[in-house]
Amino acid sequence: MTFPLAVPTFYGKIKIDSFVKSSFCLEIVAGDVSRLLSGLTSAATVLDQKTTFYRRIKICHAAVVGRSFEDAQEMLRALAGILFGRQRIRVLAEREGRRLVEEREEEVKAAQAGRAPHVCAAIGELMVITADGGRINTIQPVPDERWKEDRVGVVYDAVPQPDPAAKLGEYKGAKAQTKTYVASMEKWESFGWMLWVEALRRGYEAAKQVLFLADGAKPIRELKNLHFPKAIFILDFWHVVEHLAESARAAFGEETKAAIAAREKWKQKLWNGKVEGIILDLQEQSRRLGPPLKDDPESSPRRVLYRDAFSFFPNNKDAMDYPRYRAQGWPIGSGVAESGVKQFAKRVKGTEMHWNVSHTGAEEMLALCALFNSEDGHWDRYWDRRAQGGAE
Q1: Structural domain boundaries of the chain?
Q2: N or C: which end of the chain has fewer CB within 10 A?
């Protein structure tokens, strides 16, 4: 080794004119290499975390969009080059769904304590809240108990389209705008709190006009009365028509001329707001057949007529003012909720699908589906927030 030497380092070239100084320089160079490797390792770790995180987004997206985890596996393989098995995809998707469920529970507790969620955007002139139930095939020890009800709620803003002179079957009603969803296997009582929080997030408290649109099921009516007292309740028109058709068959026989005539007459009365006349007609037919007998099944003509004449129509007549609803341009059908149930069913319903009810199954996937299907950018906001906190 000939001195002096010029040795390049991280700090620039160092002039070495003795052996002692060369030893010191070697230590500096060694330190440079160590720091460089450490920096590369750190950068690789960050890159790996980001890769893992964005891969998780793709996995959850495929798990929701596909009809099954097998579909998700094929989509990820073909479109993203991710070679994960269906079981691993399921575990990762349901783990993210569990995070969503736990966040939702915390939001409900906070709202119950008076800490309402942040309002994302003004709802506009009209807010509509609607809910319906579907069926999911679950894992149960008793085969007859496998099919359990899932609940789907929708909150959306709408643009009224008044048309008081519309003929039966021609009315379009308010046009739905941005829809957001809540879905769960929980009972209606618990589900009501979730739907309430979602409505608060959409601006329920400040909304000028709120409608609650659903069928006449008792649990849904109770949910509305508890959580949305200022909302006007509207009974789905076509659901009421189904009741009229059942009563016509009960009174006059299956698809007889008399049954068809009664159904059409009552349907036109309903459209025109003459609900009291319908109730009188149904009660007359019920008395003609007589009261239900002890051994009559639920589907017997006597029970059907008696139930509609003395319970369903009298108890729900305040929600059947369809001429008023048309004059305001409000919706009269819960098709948005029914469409939501069908949309979710594409992913979670099927005789070949068997879900655990909670913690590792249906509840988690429903939460993930609700996040994905919401049209207010909630999916993107969620992952942006997750990115700020780092991936698991």
Answers
A1: 5-65, 108-235+333-389, 239-319
A2: N
